[in-house]
Write a structure and sequence with these properties.
5 strands
Length: 140
Amino acid sequence: MRRTNDSGFTLIEMMIVVEIVSVLAALAFPALMRQRIQTNEAVAVENLRTVCTAQIAFNTVNLRYGELEELTAGDGAAPYLDGLWNQDVVRNEYTFNMTDLTNDTFTLVAAPVTPGRSGIRTFSISESGEVRVEGLDGVG
């Protein structure tokens, strides 16, 4: 009788490997999503601070606060903000809106594009430079 040398994996072995990989992926995915949300939120806060600095510089020259479009256009010199900033601009999965703009005040709000997936909290900043935070549970 001749024996064949079957080298390879059995169906049971393959099923066990697939199950182990599935469990590892299920454990890693939530941590990856949390890290992504934390990164998006940190970048949103930094963008708010950048716009606030640009608003203060604009106010120093023009004696009023400007629209986002005005901050990127400049006033004959270099613009106060780089890139394209306008109402409803999306940066790192956060939407930025100027919700309150007068000569003496401004409020810029950064809200997640997809709450719960791109970010959990909404942030805002005003002429005081103080960043305010509001979570999904309404705590602000």
